[in-house]
Write a structure and sequence with these properties.
Layout: H1 3-7, E1 21-23, E2 29-34, E3 41-47, H2 50-65, H3 89-110, H4 113-117
Antiparallel strand pairs: 1-2, 2-3
Length: 155
């Protein structure tokens, strides 16, 4: 499987299942996670892309379970080593949701008409996870209009 198929456009996401992510009948991608040691579920949000929902799930999983969850993450290379694991479930929910929304925003910028028709990104196929940076870094560092979003802003 090529890297563009593995991490590529939102259209390829339907072919790849991510841990903790499901698709609604109308096409939105949603994710939730159980809080360890309880029967409570933590709603992490609804997203336009499966990748955004997967990143939100990864952030929540790591914040709730720490390093023990590294083997089960969808995108372990996106997790920063300084991501806090001592957050309340409500704070984890906010951080995960914001990270997922930032990924959706990045896809929106990469697939906007000016980037598809004349920009340097070349359309949907270039939205690869490798270009997104770490969750504590700058999303869209390779995009003309880089988004200045940091997970640390929400923790």
């Amino acid at each position: 499987m090529s890297s563009s198929e593995e991490f590529g456009s939102p259209s390829s996401a339907a072919k790849k299942k991510y841990r903790g992510v499901r698709q609604r009948k109308w096409g939105k991608w949603v994710t939730e996670i159980r809080v360890p040691g309880t029967t409570d579920r933590l709603w992490l949000g609804s997203y336009a892309t499966a990748e955004a929902a997967a990143v939100a799930h990864d952030i929540a999983s790591y914040c709730l379970s720490g390093g023990a969850s590294l083997g089960t993450l969808n995108f372990p290379h996106v997790i920063s080593s300084n991501l806090r694991t001592d957050l309340s479930p409500r704070s984890v929910q906010k951080a995960a949701s914001d990270a997922g929304l930032a990924i959706d925003a990045q896809f929106a910028v990469q697939t906007s008409p000016e980037n598809v028709n004349g920009g340097s990104q070349g359309g949907q196929g270039s939205g690869q996870m490798e270009d997104w940076g770490n969750v504590d870094g700058n999303y869209g560092a390779s995009c003309e209009e880089a988004l200045n979003i940091s997970i640390d802003d929400y923790l």
